[in-house]
Every structure is written in structure tokens, then in C-alpha cells.
Amino acid sequence: MSLYHALTVVDVRHETADACTFTFGVPTQLADSYAYQAGQFLTLKVPHPEGELLRCYSMCSAPTQTVNDQVQLSITVKRVVDGRASNYLCDNITPGCRLEVMRPSGVFVVNDWQQDLLLFAGGSGITPVFSILKTALAQGSGQIRLIYANRDERSIIFLHELNQLRQQYPERLEIVHLLDSLQGVPRIGLLQSLCYDMQSARAFICGPGPYMDAAETALHNAGFNADTIHVERFVSLDSATAKRDESRPQTPDASGEHTTVTIDLYGTTHVIDCASGETVLNAAREQGIELPYSCEVGMCASCMCEVTDGDVELRHNDVLTERDLNNGITLTCQAVPKSKTLQLKYT
Ligand code: FES
Asked: Among residues of the chain, what percentage have pLDDT more than 90?
């Protein structure tokens, strides 16, 4: 089964001066492969003139939204200054274009829709948060507070839809807009004051690094348990590539030992040899087997799978929580086998 499929862009919508939403049509026979959970992302092969670029973009649509009986699949892309992929997409992709898209992945997801949610979004970090918000309103019952930070009013993505949702769910949804142009950059004390009355909630945070750090500290200060806080770090693959270049090599050490790795890739079984010190992703690639990946530095979770037997050690992990690890979830781009045999399963 191919990891990527060419999906047709059926709609392009300009959200703000520098953010566009792209909606993909999903043929019926691929509907199962592109079913997703709110908060997940897509990895795209962006056909840039300088060469293909792999990039991850979160879904802004919700799995509960349908158009003509099909689940809506939309991502929102905000231009990054000098960003090759984001500017290429916003400048060149029009309805009718086809893009190579990998099936959805990511662990920034909600396990219980009935609980209260405290959502922090900064700038385009609203994208996965918006998907979670819409799903929670449609199929949950808890209270939701969205704390949404932006530069100024004109940079607020989805402002109109958020206002509509607030009118539709006045008892359940509260939205607090924080604007740098009015209040300055959000401070920990302010964010903390917005947390105290929601201590039974689960918190989800996505946005620029300093905002996420401030929100996380605010939640800790307000007494939230670490395992109730979910953070989605934006993966800038330009910086990820730089990190990869600096990171330890993914290739074997000199011991000559190896592990037999059995990989269930969406129902197809592959058996490979992985040398001591080598990552599973690298070993598979060397042996001509294509596994899902994007950043290759342990930041995005597009290479995530389950260890069903054996042990691995992760060289680096910026994305999986303690609970994921305890549930046997791993990252093949960082996983080095620690047992004589290993079994992995992609679901
Ligand atoms: S490819 Fe991004 S975490 Fe492995």
C-alpha cells in the first residue's frame, strides 16, 4: 500500500492576508485511509521548483464535518517568512491541483470528549485547536474555554467561524482573545488567572514556542497535573533539517550485531535486519522499504507506530508523552532496537 496518494485540491480559501485553507477531495476508496482524529496533521510532498519538500500541516476541519456525505479534509497554511513550502503553496496551489498527501498522523488528540477543555492557541496554532474545538462542541458535553493570542485583530484566523460557534453554544464555549497590539505579549500571570476555575479540564496548547512555554508554566503554577497538559510543537522542517544534520548518525555501529525487525505496515508484513545502533527507519530505507516519516528528528510523530514485541531505545523524543511510551508507542526515525527480535505495527 502506498503511503502517499495524489489528492485533488477542491477549494482554496484565503483566511487572512497570510493564511490559506486548502480542502482536499478524498475518493471513496481512500476514505478509510484518510479518516482522522481532531488535532492530527497531514504530511505533504510539496512540489517546489528546488526539489520536493516534505511538510506537516494540521487539519483545521473536524472529522464531524461533512460535505456531500464526505468527511471534510482541510489544512490551513500560514506563510512563514522565507518559508519555501508555505509560500509556494499559498502562491501556486489552486482548485484542481493535485498534491501527494500521506495519511493523517499525530498524537495531539482528545481521548474523552465529555471532559472540560482548556484550549490555548497562538497565531496559526489555532489550526489543530479549531478542529478539536469543533469536534468537542459537536460530540462532547463539557465546558470549553479557548484562549487565543494574536498580533492584532486582522491576524485572527477563523474569527467569523469562532463568533458563530460562540453564538451557537453560549452555555459551553467561552473565547478569550489576547492581542499583542492591545495587551502586549501574553504573560504567565495573565494566562494563569484564566486557568484556576478549570482545574478539572484537559489542556491543549499550540502556537509559537514562547507562548506555549508561558501557557505550560501557567498551567503548572495553577496546579494542573503534567499528564493533563497536551502540547503540539510546530515542526519547522527547515530547522528540523538543520537539527538532523547535527544529530548523531542513523547508521550502524561497528559491533556487527543486528535485530530482526518484523513490521506490519497497514496490513503488509516486512522483515528487515537492523544493525546495532541503527534506527529502524534508516534500516528499512536501506532495504528498499518505505515507512512513513517527515521530520526525522523526533518532533512530528508521522513515523509513529506501536511496539508489539521487543524493546527499543529512542534517541530523541519531542512529541510522545509518558503515557504514549507506556502504551508501547514509538518513533521509527529515532528508535534503535534493544532486543534480538522486534515487532512493530502501524495502525
Ligand atoms: S519523522 Fe518526525 S518524529 Fe519521526
From this structure: 79
How far apart CA 129 and CA 126 sit, in angstroms, is 5
Residues with Cβ < 8 Å from 314, sequence gap 6 or more?
298, 320, 325, 330, 331, 334, 335, 336
- Whose cell is 508523552? That residue is 321
**299 CA to middle of ligand 1, Å?**
6
CB distance 59 to 41 below 8 Å? yes
Could you tell me the distance, in angstroms and rounded to a whole number, from the CA of residue 232 to the centre of ligand 1? 13
pLDDT at 213: 95
Residue 237: what pLDDT? 52
Residue 216 identity (one-letter amino acid): E
- Which cell numbers in the block locate residue 146? 479557548
Tell which one of 40, 293, 305, 325 to mutate to probe ligand 1, the residue whose CB is within 8 A of the most ligand atoms: 293
Around Cβ 266, how many Cβ atoms within 10 Å?
12
Cα–Cα distance measured from residue 13 to residue 120, given in angstroms and rounded to the nearest whole number: 24
3-state SS class at 87: helix
E strands, the chain, in order:
4-16, 19-25, 41-46, 53-58, 66-67, 70-71, 73-78, 98-102, 117-122, 144-150, 173-179, 202-206, 229-232, 258-265, 268-275, 304-309, 312-314, 329-331, 335-337, 341-346
Q: And the C-alpha cell for 299? A: 518532533
Q: How many CA atoms lie within 13 A of 104 on its CB side?
A: 28
CA-CA distance, 281 to 286, in Å (whole number)? 9
> Which atom in ligand 1 lies closest to the alpha carbon of residue 333?
4
pLDDT above 60 for 87: yes
Which residues lie with the beta carbon below 6 Å from any ligand 1 atom? 293-296, 298-303, 319, 331, 333
Read off the pLDDT of residues 275-308 as tens digits, 9 standing for 90 and up.
989 999 999 999 999 999 988 989 888 999 999 9
Q: How close is the Cα of 75 to the center of ligand 1, in Å?
A: 19
Please give the grid coordinates belonging to residue 10. 477542491
In DSSP terms, 259 is beta-bridged to 274
For residue 297, report the distance from its CA to the centre of ligand 1, in Å.
Answer: 6
